[in-house]
Amino acid sequence: MSAVTVTDGAPSPAPLRRGGGWLRALLLSCHPLPTVAVTALATALAAGAGGGVATTALLGSAVLAGQLAVGWSNDWVDAARDAAVGRGDKPAAAGLLPVRDVRAAALAAAAAVVPLSLLLGWRAGLLHLLGVAAALGYNAGLKSTPWSWVPYVLFFGGLPTVVTLAVAGGAAPLWASAVGALLGVGAHCANVIPDLDDDRATGVRGLPHLLGRAGSTVLASAALSAASVLVVLGPPGPPGALGWAGLALAGALTASAAWAALTSPRSRWPFPATVAVAALDVALLVAAGGALTA
């Protein structure tokens, strides 16, 4: 597929859709599903690690602000590129929302994340800000390089320690950080796979684009499988029945996803299977939350 020319500035506006409204369009521009999912993960980890109501709420607020900044900045930076490939699901690209409004929201969220993070303590705050900065760097250009996976590893790998520093003042166990980093790699691949063709058309060449659909699915499956093993076997003590059951289910899902990707390139199964394994790993990590500060 030949590359689509992307011009600077806002895309030409399309007629506004009826219904909804400005606020709804702005909320849709923040990538609400990953924003809510990551915020819920951090909040659940803090509660499971023994955080009080105030600390857990503050951590959730800091993570929410960071994810809003990341989501809005993505739609701000990519507005012209998304418009070039007809991304009607992106309000700014579709002309339903001025790009300047998305930019203003991103900058406001980025400003809010600094004090909210530092209120967690300077070590937890700086580590969280490093993760958010890495994610913003992804939007700014790292997504188009072979190092596109690095921001995901930095953010998700550091998130357990952000939680434990805020809750108990110490670093998370190595196994928890490794689980987070592996989840980051799996999330990166799973997030990009549906958009590979559109990204290639606009010149984006991150690691998943270099690997292709099958290679990215295999990498995501391998990373999430390793995360499943670590999250079950990493905490002290023998795994319970729930852990073994989760590990078996994760293994079956990842094996089926990898097999489908390698034998049936047009199969739609690998993506939902990979997302299901990621959700399962997150659930197992949250269930092991008490082990983060043990």
TrEMBL record:
Pfam family, any one: UbiA
InterPro entries in alphabetical order: UbiA_prenyltransferase, UbiA_sf
UniProt entry keywords in alphabetical sequence: Membrane, Transferase, Transmembrane, Transmembrane helix
Cellular component terms per the entry's GO annotation: membrane
Transmembrane residue ranges: 102-120, 149-168, 174-193, 214-235, 241-262, 269-292
Name this protein carries in UniProt: 4-hydroxybenzoate polyprenyltransferase
Single Gene Ontology MF annotation: transferase activity, transferring alkyl or aryl (other than methyl) groups
Organism placement in taxonomy: Bacteria, Bacillati, Actinomycetota, Actinomycetes, Kineosporiales
Cell compartments where the protein resides: Membrane
Membrane topology: Multi-pass membrane protein
UniProt keyword annotation of Transmembrane helix present: yes
Gene3D superfamilies with a match to the protein in the record: UbiA prenyltransferase
